[in-house]
């Protein structure tokens, strides 16, 4: 009943109180409403930047209820978790972030992802969705009124999905192996492979961006998210090996893209600091070395 | 005509997936048979990153990776035959993608591992692992005719190798994974799937699949380190 009241009150407020478009959009997201009714009011109306100081009580109660409907189970160092967070940020979705304990794995994680027992897991209205790229596509599908994450053309979508699969199946596993490489020759070989992959991605960026700032064009999209989440760990590998992987000479467009990506509003608060990641990586490596039998 | 080409080999089940998808949508295509021991310039140009089949070429533009191609087919020919491959509901769609990824990452690898493993403890463990991954699919298909519901969908196409290629692997590996006793629902689904048109129209001869897999298995076994 209160949801019904909240919706009609929201409509009343919308026509009677000036709000920034942002606040209204986030209210729409929270309600999972399509803005059909409200968009007629939005279009052509000149919005001033005045804030609404008093939230209608029914609306704010409904907001508080719907806020916890979206939860993300994750871990701060995980690039895969970052993908889900960026997608939710792009869509201005309010969600509760639950930092996973891991040792031991929480009952929530084991219940919501019994197959892999891994983060991220998005829980929307009690339904769990697993696997980062699947979560990103789900977020794009559900919150369809927000900016699009996947390109609109089927061919461009296929190219974005192809490169995202390449990143997960080939490139990132190679990057990870660099840290655990046995011997200098092995390390050099892996670093060369990482570099070759970056050359392919430089070429992909030039083709898909069509001269714009991101793989997705003017705005960050699916492939920006799929690749950009690895930038932190790429820098960790550079720091630990002393080798510059993202290189001004070989991959100049990727270097500029990386700066723009990390500075983006949907990214900057969820990209972990490289120093923290380096510490975390060293801790992991020490643990692995301690548990490896002689 | 001439607008859609598929580079593939009939014995390969990822290539069969694409044929099934195209036929279900009623899309006409030209099949360009690839000799994987002597890769064509067209394949290398169309898929320079992996140099693998299948590759779909539509209006001159190549798309690689079977799961990516299936989604492309579904989106491009979305009104054809009113037959959507992926579910309409976002959550159901996410689930279909999840299980498709699981099949390619876990099932294929565990089944192959069980098949290739040599007799002994290693093989027993590999067979147990394969059965465990397949048990997830048994749960998913329970109570349904197809993974897609009443009609064949994306997940049926991705899992389709279980209805035919699996039995060849079981024979070569001297193992039994899916049978009516252990996985009754999956077994029933397999029989329904392989006997439905247009699926049954693009099944390669069994001896070709046998030859294709034998070669692979013998190669892998020959590379395994000798055990003292």
Automatic annotation (TrEMBL), chain A:
PANTHER family: GLUTATHIONE S-TRANSFERASE U17, GLUTATHIONE S-TRANSFERASE, GST, SUPERFAMILY, GST DOMAIN CONTAINING
Family annotation (Pfam families): GST_C, GST_N
Documented EC number(s): 2.5.1.18
GO biological process, one term: glutathione metabolic process
Residue intervals passing through the bilayer: none
Entry's family note: Belongs to the GST superfamily. Tau family.
InterPro entries from the UniProt entry: Glutathione-S-Trfase_C-like, Glutathione-S-Trfase_C_sf, Glutathione_S-Trfase, Glutathione_S-Trfase_N, GST_C, GST_C_Tau, Omega/Tau-like, Thioredoxin-like_sf
Enzyme class: transferase
Protein name, UniProt field: glutathione transferase
GO cellular component entries: cytoplasm
Keyword GTP-binding listed: no
MF-aspect GO terms: glutathione transferase activity
Record domain GST C-terminal: where: 153-280
Annotated ranges, domain GST N-terminal: 68-147
Record's keyword terms, sorted: Detoxification, Transferase
Superkingdom of the source species: Eukaryota
Catalytic activity of the protein: RX + glutathione = an S-substituted glutathione + a halide anion + H(+)
From TrEMBL, chain B:
Keyword ATP-binding assigned: no
Gene3D superfamilies named among the record's database cross-references: 1.20.1050.10, Glutaredoxin (3.40.30.10)
Subcellular localization, as worded in the UniProt entry: Cytoplasm, Cytosol
GO molecular function: glutathione transferase activity
Chief location of this protein within or outside the cell: cytoplasm
Reaction(s) this enzyme catalyzes, per UniProt: RX + glutathione = an S-substituted glutathione + a halide anion + H(+)
GST N-terminal domain ranges (all copies): 2-81
Family: Belongs to the GST superfamily.
Protein name: Glutathione S-transferase
Organism: Arachis hypogaea (Peanut)
